[in-house]
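The following record pairs a protein chain with its ligand, flavin-adenine dinucleotide.
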Amino acid sequence: MTDTCKILIIGAGPTALGAAKRLDELGQSDWLLFERQAEAGGLAGSVVDEAGFTWDMGGHVIFSHYQYFDRVLRETIAQWVEHVREAWVYLGGQFIPYPFQNNIWRLPPDQLIDCMEGLIDARLNISTHAEKPGSFHDWIVSNYGNALSELFFLPYNFKVWAYQPKKLDIGWTGERVARVDLKKILRTLVLKQDDIGWGPNSTFSFPLHGGTGAIWRGLAEKLPPEKINFSNGLVSLDIQNKKASFENGKVVSYSHLISTIPLRELLLLLVNQPQLTARADELIYSSTHIVGLGMDGQIPAELAGKCWLYFPEPEIPFYRATAFSHYSPYNVPKPGKQWSLMCEVSESPDKNVNSATVAKDVLKAAASIGFIDEKSCASLWHRRLEYGYPTPFLGRDKLLAELDKALLEKSIHSRGRFGGAKYEVSNQDHSFMQGVEAVDNILFGDEEITYTDPNRVNTQGKRPEPRRPAPGGM
Ligand SMILES: Cc1cc2nc3c(=O)[nH]c(=O)nc-3n(C[C@H](O)[C@H](O)[C@H](O)COP(=O)(O)OP(=O)(O)OC[C@H]3O[C@@H](n4cnc5c(N)ncnc54)[C@H](O)[C@@H]3O)c2cc1C
């Protein structure tokens, strides 16, 4: 059973679907896609639990840097709910609007003075020494000062990444971490006024039905079904002879491969490539537990209207909780009579989590801070994602550059959240466009800007649609 195709795509998450959509749109027919799971979506998929609550794989909000991505989403989903991106920090029993550093006027006076002094010291040190921080830990302290770092940024980042910030690099920070604006902080302090990060332009859309996964299931359904193979994972890859073997025994001969599975997994599946395979475990990542609390009754007044909250304190197991019923009323089986909260807990070799108890631990913690009443819990849902966050570890960029070069020499584009392993371009829009750009690179030699130059993509406003060659001109 050997098939042949020009472009072979592995996976059916946003990256793979970006590649497939682009090929289809360009009128290309010589391609195939293989996915291990029974449906599309990957980490951007959604499930409905036994009680009828819909869950995403963690809080998914669309931030788009691309016109092409916007168009495809609008063509795929007809009904959306529009939201204002309201994010909060929960600390010391208090809600503080995000960005945290701009709203420290809400802290008790002692803490506030420590934080302000730290911010001023940090600014003076930066301007006099202008040292380049070596790790994310140093970057945090040199930007926010000691007190604010210890109160929020260091504990929160350990909770999210599951590695101490000393192990993380800084090249990825770009737009992902809000910077310090001392004048703004002074203004909020004097006027005792919040600076909310959710101004008029900070909105996002969410599918009315089916969760985030509806986008990707919908897109997959529009692609030629004869090219899409579900429930058939890649089991080994012979890059010397360009042959991929699958679970059902099928072998596919390809000219180009777009792999969207974790790069680490890809290296482990290579046949007779000991030097590449040996590097797999250098790719550090963390796992994520998603715990869904499906609740009877009404959302508590203090959570109403809030989209998501950050939790820096170590006593609370989750780093983020999303008021998921707020995203769409149909995320619960009885709209208006139920609500839901989705919590995320990170795990790594440096931060152990007991998978058997984590759901109950989350339930108890949410009850202890008064967010829920345990007795009203209609559903307690738990999913562990082995690959949750691609860690931007020290030395990552050098390793990725070496691996990418070796794979491209064998006509392999490894792209996407874990395929490309660059956190700063690992959201759905970035991932989808990495797939699109990989196709344009293979067909036309176009630059893959998202993978090769994340800062440009993240800082230069919305990118225009990629060129559309005239039919027959490919
Ligand atoms: C907790 C969390 C929160 C997030 N929040 C947001 C957010 O707010 N906004 C946002 O835009 N994005 C968010 N994301 C990121 C989003 O999920 C990713 O951008 C997106 O899913 C990445 O797509 P991908 O195709 O690169 O990878 P994936 O979605 O991981 O898809 C890879 C696919 O490959 C398949 N596969 C694996 N191994 C094999 C094999 N051997 N053979 C065949 N198939 C295989 C998998 O089953 C999967 O379907 C979040 C992710 C997580 C985990």
